Amino acid sequence: MPSWNAILEEIQQSKRIDALDYVRRSYLKKLNVITGRNVIAYYSGWLQKPGTNNSSILDDDKNGFMTVIHNMDRNKGLDLILHTPGGDTAATESIVDYLRRMFNTDIRVIVPQLAMSAGTMIACASKEIIMGKQSSLGPIDPQFNGIPAHGVIEEFEKALLHIDTKKFDQLAKEVIEEYKDQTYTYTKNLVTSLKAKGYTLLAISGSHTELVQLLAHYYEFDDFVATVYERSG
Questions:
Q1: Beta bridge partners of 110
Q2: Of residues 9 and 149, more confidently modeled
Q3: Running DSSP on this structure, what letter comes out for residue 202?
Q4: How far is CA 215 from CA 94, 126, 163, 167, 172, in A?
């Protein structure tokens, strides 16, 4: 296996207009010949160009997968070369669902360097993860506009100390109204299915009871359990 410098030298010596694409395709073909499996490289230059737009996992990426998978022999399975900082959770779920529909569970993920956050989720959804000594998976930490959600929650808890109960109740309604439909498709379908079968649905959360009550009512749960905080003011 060539080093990064060797590949750069090969690109420079090719003297082709499409040198980068040509060399990339040649190595993907070599892997295909060795394994006899379909190969897709899913990556971005997020380490070389930090802050670049659209370098994380987005829902539009599924269009790319659909394009390249269209004429593949799906009985050969899929080797997915993955290098990503992570990205949108809903987009990740959608992409994984699509890949598993196309290849069932015959998916291997190859991590040459990093598959962080939602990238780790994609890797864990495969039947096998292939890594080198230099490869890393990352923590699956929900983020809000690039900020760890845990940090947002901590700041939220501090802010609560300075908000009166009437204002808090109003904010709770506004939050639920804005985000009530941002739920995993799998979760929505499961709730619908269980309700149709006559199951009793109980929402259990460590969040504030004012929030959980509103969300449980929206999804027609039978009851809920949440954290009750002392109210004053």
A1: 81, 130
A2: 9
A3: E
A4: 23, 32, 21, 18, 10
Helix H segments across 54-113?
A: 61-69, 89-103
What confidence tens digit (pLDDT) does each residue in 30-61 have? Answer: 999 999 999 999 998 888 777 777 888 999 99
Those residues with Cβ within 8 angstroms of residue 225's Cβ, 6 or more apart along the chain or in another chain: 202, 203, 204, 205, 212
| Tally of CB atoms within 10 A around 15 | 7
**Strand boundaries in the chain, DSSP class E:** 38-43, 78-83, 107-111, 114-115, 128-131, 136-137, 143-144, 147-148, 202-208, 223-227
Over residues 113-137, the pLDDT tens digits come to 999 989 999 999 999 999 999 999 9
d(CA 84, CA 174): 34
Here the tokens at position 126 are 């495969």
| pTM summary value | 0.63
Round the CA-based radius of gyration of the chain to a whole number and report it. 23
Torsion of CA 179, 83, 94, 208, to 10 degrees: -30
